[in-house]
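2024-03-11 09:14:02 INFO receiving multi-entity request
2024-03-11 09:14:02 INFO entity count = two
2024-03-11 09:14:03 INFO echoing inputs for audit
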Amino acid sequence: MSGDIWVLAEQWRGRISEITYEILALGRDLADEAGVRLEAVLVGSHVRGLADTLGTADSVLLIDHPLLAEPVTPTYADVLAPLLADRSPAAFLVPLTNISLGIGTLLAGELRLPAVNFCRDAHFVDRRLRATCVLYGGKIEAEVTPRGGATAILGIWPHARPPEKGHSKRLPGVEEIAASPDAAPAIRFRRYINPPAGDVDLTKQEALVAVGRGMRSKENLELAEALARGIGGAVCASRPVVDQHWLPLSRQVGKSGLTVKPKLYFALGISGAPEHVEGMRKSDCIIAVNTDPQAPIFNVANYGVVGDALELLPVLTRAVEGRKRAGGGAG
Amino acid sequence: MMKIAVLLKMAPDVVEELEIAASGKSLDFKSLRMAPNESDEHAVEEALLLKERFGAKVIVVALEAPEVDEALFGALANGADRAIKITGLRENLTTAEEADVFTRVVRGEIGAIPDLILTGVQAIDDLDGLIGPLIACELGLPFLGVVVGLSPCPDGAGMVALKECPGGVRAEFDVTPPAVLGIQAAERPPRYVPLAKLQAAAHTKKIELVPVPLPTDPVNPLIEVLRMRRRAPAARAEMLSGSVEEIAGRLCEVLAGQDLIEE
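2024-03-11 09:21:47 INFO inference complete, emitting structure
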């Protein structure tokens, strides 16, 4: 067993994902704690140039093959498994993103390794790896340790560390790893479909009124629209609202949707699951309204209101309009 | 005809208060209200859509848990051909144990491996991995997750799966069955089952009970939970209280401070 720390360096469509740098920073901390090497594992086709951006790692294990051009989950797992089995690092940190989801568990299942999911931090305590996991929609935190001394597969949430900490100008050493991916796998990439242009570009809005399951029905979204009009913003949504087809995919914020950084993000009836927070946590000011005082959204909000958004919205919109009238503004 | 197995499990309803057990290492399951895992409900819906559009036999397999009968009768009422409830389980199974149980039932009760095995892409309690990939490994099948649409290939060979990528981009994949697919969302919201329809299903349809006993203690768990706790709320937020009017007034000040109310 090498005892090193490995990070899956996620790349997609020719770019290293931001979460890779976050996890490199976490991996660097772990490797330094344990006095071992940090290796980044980069998989793709014609991605050698990307390896140079991974200098936070001591070196890069590069698996570059034309059949690995797109991230097909079982194909990536198949080329990683023999490498992992052969070198047995102490831990392999894998991003919990739509691109990489499933790779870690496939490796754990295939090689009978311990998997720890939903990690947001990890340390060595008495030389044993200990992960802090956020589960149950962000409401519960668990301290978890892998057993048995085999390589632990850790699925890492976004924002485990600031991405800036994972950048380095140092050029890492690169070791090329030979691989022979299945030329006719059961799951094969066909094509990408870009999203239809939305009626509103959420990323350019100064104010977003975000609606979640707590709005209870599509009809109630008009209350949010009214507030958005009042403050010159637009309405966006968390995943459950889009899954219910109350709003189109172009309005979704979060892991599968857009990442936004408005001046104001007004979260109405949104619990604050990590998948949503990923897309809005960098907003300048976050106001959250939720009936559940334990809702994780309050952990990232600047201002919180425990209450029913449906009661607050009409009163707030009237107050906004009244203030505009009193000031003579056109709104 | 295509055969589809959908694996359904109940998960704690996070709308409710979650209590930690006296051991400090798990939730207190006696105090919990359970609800179908959200993406599992989408997996059921996607299977029913495939049946309606292209013809298929749909078998829903669920782990025994409070309220699970309602979910199974709901699936039967909506058109599922069979509903199987796995019994004889202890509470608080690890995800690896759940995958093991599902795998045994797929092998034993369903007979031939189904063309498609659909699961929710993940559950809020999947602490030791995701159930779909674990089942895929057990059965030696390929796995693709974050799926938001399925249809037969235009040339009739296999399926086309639509996977969600970042930024609203979607990727199409050819899938040669059999395969395990983790469903993120069905192409339309899971259908509502009116109470009368649910009651009618409970009278006319049957849930098959399949005992799959497990040892009392977890089988060689590969991870150990040392401690579980509720996350500290309001770590950062300034909480506003008072009447609705008072709160609205205070929020107006905040909005004005952000130059969002043009006076």
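2024-03-11 09:21:48 INFO post-check: The first helix of chain B runs from residue 38 to 54.
2024-03-11 09:21:48 INFO post-check: The two ends of chain B are 66 Å apart (CA to CA).
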